[in-house]
Amino acid sequence: MALLEVENLQTHFRTPSGINRAVDGVSFHVNEGETLAIVGESGCGKSVTSMSLMRLIPEPPGRIAGSIRFAGKDLLKLSDREMRAIRGNDISMIFQEPMTSLNPVLTVGRQIRETLMIHQGLDKQAAEAHAIEMLTLVGIPEPKRRVREFPHQLSGGMRQRVMIAIALACSPKLLIADEPTTALDVTIQAQILKLMLDLKRRVGAAIILITHDLGVVAEIAERVMVMYAGRKVEEAPVAELFRSPRHPYTQGLLGAVPKLGSSLAGTTTRLAEIPGQVPDLRKPITGCVFAGRCALATDLCRQYAPGLEEKGPRHVAACHYAAKGAVAA
Amino acid sequence: MSVPLLQVNDLKKHFPVNKGLFGKKTEFVYAVDGVSFEIARGETLSLVGESGCGKSTVGRAILRLFDVTSGQVILDGQRIDDAAPATMRQMRRRVQVVFQDPFSSLNPRMRVRDILAEPIRNFGLAKSAIDLETRVTALMDTVRLPREALNRRPHEFSGGQRQRIGIARALAAEPELIVCDEAVSALDVSVKAQIVNLLQDLQREFGLALLFISHDLAIVEHMTHRVAVMYLGKIVEVAPRRQIFAAPRHPYTKALLSAVPLPEPGAQRNPIILGGDVPSPINPPKGCRFHTRCPYVFDRCRTEEPQLRSADGEQWVACHLDELPEG
Fold it and tell me: What are the residue boundaries of the ABC transporter domain, all occurrences included (chain B) (predicted)?
C-alpha cells in the first residue's frame, strides 16, 4: 500500500490580477521507503506541491483542494493541532537554504532538541544525548562541541547537515527535500547526496526530492514525476524516463543539459532549446499546457488537453502524440 | 604567437577586514593571491572553482571595479591596472561584463532603449541620433528580442529575456572581451540552453573573447576552449578543455569533476568525496592550500607551496605529486 496518496491536488492563490493556478490537478503516490523525484523549472508548481503536502500554504490567499492521504488519514481534513503532530514527526522537510531555515539566535542543539521534546516527549538530558547522536549520524565532527554552537558558526554544508539531523530526529516515514543541494558547492553536494543515500538505507524513510538538477535525480531517485505549469506531464521509473522520455517537454529538458564528458566523445553539439516561456498561470489554459512551446503541437493540442495515458510499463505521459509501447532508444 | 588580448600577471587582491575594538587589528582576506593567465582573441577561458575561491574577484579586477593589491592586468599590450582615468575610460569600452543576476543588474527605472543607448553615448560610438537608433534596434535583433520591447522596463521581462538585455548592453560598447560572471547560473535549464547558444553564436559572429566564470562544469565543458581551476585564491590547474576533462592532473580538479552528478541513472561513478570544507581565505593553510582536504597529502605539501609547472606547455599543474615520475 502506498504511504502517501495525492489525488487531484489543486493549490490556487488569489492575486489582485486573478487566480493563480500554481498546482492544478496533480495526482501521485509514494510507496514506503521509496524515493520520488519531482522535476521541473521555476514556477512549475513543484515547491507549492511540497508545501501543500505539509499544509504550509497560508490560507487565504492560498486554497488547497483535493485529497492528500498519508498512512490512511486525509491531511486536508485534519485540524491544525492534529497537523502539528504530524509535521516534523511523521513527515519532515529539508529546505533549500540552510542559511535562512535555521533560527540564528538558538543553538543547533536546542533546535534539534525542540522536535524531540515536543513529539517524543523526551526530557532535556535525553533529547540532548539524542541530538549529539543525530549530529554524529550526519557526519558532523566534534558533535559535543557543535551542539552548543549557533548556525552562523557553521559552514553551508554543515548547516544543511544540521537541517537533515533535525528532519530525521524523530525517524519520519516521509522526508520532503526541497532542492536540498542547490545552494551548495559540488564537492559539498556530493557529501550531502552520499549522506542522504546512506541515511535512507539506515532509517528507511520515503523521500520526495524536489529539484531541477537532472544529475541529482539520476543519482538518487527511483521514480520521477515531471511537472510543467502546475500539472504532471510525465511519470516513470528513473531509468525508463532517461532512456525513453515520451513527453516533448521532458525530451526538451533532457536535451538542454550538457553532459560532462561530451567534449571527449566529440558530441558537443548545439544544446536543444525549448523556445518561448512558461504560460501565465493566472489565465485559464485551454488545451495542452505545453502547446505554445511544442514543436509538434497541432490544433488538437490547442483545443483539447491530453489526459495522462499509459505509454509503457509504469510510464504515463500527458501528450496526444507521445509514442506508446517499447521505443527503440 | 601574437600578443594575447589579455594578460594577467601574478594578480593579487587582498581585502582588509577590521577586527578588534575600534577596528585596529587588521587582517586580510587573501581573495586572489598570485594568479596569472592569458586570453587570446576570440578565445573562451573558463574560471571554475567553488564559492570563495576568488574567481569572481579575478573578473572584477580585470574590469577594474577596484584597484588590485599587486600584479598586472595587460589588455592588448597596455597595462590597465594602473592606467590613468582618461586612458582607463577608453580601455573600459573594450572589456564588458554580464552579471549573474538579471534582476539586480539592470536599472529598473530605465527603459530598455536607454539601457542600451547609455554605453553607446558614453563612448561616443554613434555619429547621429539616427545612427544611435539603428544601433539600438540592431542590438535587439542580435540578442533575438522583439524591437517593440525597447520601450519597456526591465520588470516586464522574464529572467532569460533580462539576461539577453544584459548581453545586448555589453555588446553595445563593441567590446573585445566579455567577462561572464556566472551569467547563466541563475537561469532555468531550458532558458540556460538558449543563453548558452546565444553566447556561442555571438562569439563566432563578433570574434569575442570570453572570460567565463562558472561553477557549472558541464556548461563549461560545453562552451570553453581552455579552463583554469581555482582553489582558495590560486590557480591549481590550467589546460585546454580536452586535457582538463579527459586527463585532469591536480587532485582537486579530479575531485571536482568526479563530484558532478551525471544525468544518467545507474552510471558507473566513483566520486572522490573530499572531507571537510574549504578553509578560510583569511588564514589560508601553509604550503599547498589544498593539503587539508587532499587525499594524497604528504609531508612536503604541508610546508612547501607547489608552483604551476607544465610538461607539455599546455597543461599547467601546481602539485608536488605531479613532479614525481609517472607510475
Answer: 6-257
